[in-house]
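Chapter summary example: a protein plus flavin mononucleotide.
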Amino acid sequence: MEALYALHNRISVNLLDYPAPTSSQLENIFRSGLRACDHKNLRPWKFLLIEGDARNRLGDLMAQVKQATSQGTELSEEDKVKLQKKPLRAPTIIAVIADIKQHEKVPEIEQLLSAGAAAQMMMTSAFAQGLGAIWRSGSLMFTREMHTGLGLTDHQKLVGFIYLGTVKACKQVPELVIEDYVERWPS
Ligand SMILES: Cc1cc2nc3c(=O)[nH]c(=O)nc-3n(C[C@H](O)[C@H](O)[C@H](O)COP(=O)(O)O)c2cc1C
């Protein structure tokens, strides 16, 4: 696929199925992430590949974190099962993590942006290979409990989960008007 075609037409896909991305498709995705813009070349990112039964572990973690952060309210069985099933919405998930380094010229916000840019690069790489992908988050993602459960250190922050798979159904690319977002400065 032409690079510009992919950049202009990438779309998120929330209905994903097997087959899962192949190892060579995943390699392309990770290579793309590693080319995100990166002030001082800190490589402020880390990626966790979650496939197969590991998705059930992630679902259990989501339910545990929800319970732990519910301030004493007991999680209903229905809500628990719902959370446990969330990672099963795609055959493959990549957790994108900002691995924040101490640097006098590169504040945390720049490193978070860089990890976000890596996520976007991976999204576009998935699309360019004909895969479906969607970037998901959710309030649990920002909790210390979720970070600990994923095995992250104090200087690592979860940026998002990229769900990957084969496209089951796809929406239309919206028509956006450049002029709505761009103006000359000074006007
Ligand atoms: C940081 C971030 C977090 C997101 N979290 C969610 C989410 O939890 N659930 C969801 O359905 N979409 C989420 N989205 C939005 C989708 O990934 C997607 O961008 C949106 O549905 C628009 O679709 P499009 O990418 O095809 O334009 C998130 C996007 C970003 C950038």
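Key point: The helical segments are 3-9, 23-33, 54-68, 77-85, 108-128, 144-149.
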